[in-house]
Amino acid sequence: MVSSIVVYGGSGALGRALVSTFIQKQWIVTSIDFFANQEATTNILLEKNDTLEEQGRRVIGAVGGKVDAIVCVAGGWAGGNAASDELFATSELMWKQSVHSSLVAAHLASKYLKSGGLLTLTGAYPAQKGTPFMIGYGMAKAAVHQLVASLAGPDSGIPADATVNAILPVTLDTPMNRSGMPNADFTSWTPCNEVAETIYSWATGVNRPTSGKLIEIVTKDNKTTYTEK
After folding, report:
1. CA 169 to CA 177: how far, in whole Å?
2. What's the rounded Cα separation, in Å, for the pair 160 and 116?
3. This prediction's pTM
4. Which keywords describe this protein according to UniProt (predicted)?
5. Active site residues
6. Which of 112, 167, 181, 190 shows the smallest number of beta carbons within 10 Å?
């Protein structure tokens, strides 16, 4: 039987790497995003003005059946401290991009994730402590961390034997990041295709982390380590 995965955020940099990796492994791949990923088997398109409830209905109504894995890599970044004129707008955007997508992915898992399946969300390494120069971002990612702990508990609504975790990258090596930080040390950035291959191994049961864990992803001198927290 062919395995299947839902990639939430399938047209972003990490999402594209995931879609490509799983397609190459001959999985059925559903991409959820505002734009279609032409490499995916199926696309579910969102509308930017959707409320959380509307987004949930749009996604839940379009998934065709049980899946082996759901990976949510939707999100974004915005800076700003408490004095920022854009504090409210950027914080609301961060919440929508990271928390809303993670909540919909969790609800999707409650309905369509197979027994023993994998649900991976995306947190952030810096959000394990205070983020004074990017308050909205840190708050949203910390909420995702808490969601993982809740989903891994008893009676959370997802299959009892499913594994739920969150990846916590520091900086992913993406075209946008390279454009925004051209003088950075790229040897400390994590390649998206490497993360995609790692998640593929988890989806197939190889070196799968303990449910409820946050997985720190740290790259130094082009070598990446994955540490459960």
Report:
1. 13
2. 8
3. 0.96
4. NADP, Oxidoreductase, Tetrahydrobiopterin biosynthesis
5. 137
6. 181
Q: Which 3 state secondary structure label does DSSP give 74?
A: coil
Indicate the residue type of 165.
N
Q: What type of residue sits at position 1? A: M
Residue 179 has pLDDT above 90, yes or no: no
What is the C-alpha separation between 56 and 51, in angstroms, rounded? 8
Residue the block writes with tokens 């308050």: 135
Query: Domain 4-228: which CATH class?
Result: alpha beta
Contacting residues for 44 by C-beta, under 8 A, at least 6 apart: 30, 31, 32, 58, 59, 62, 63
- Per-residue pLDDT of 17-34, as tens digits, reads 999 999 999 999 999 999
Where do the domains of the chain lie?
Answer: 4-228
Query: Once rounded to an integer, what is the mean pLDDT over residues 177-204?
Result: 93
Does residue 160 carry a pLDDT above 90? no
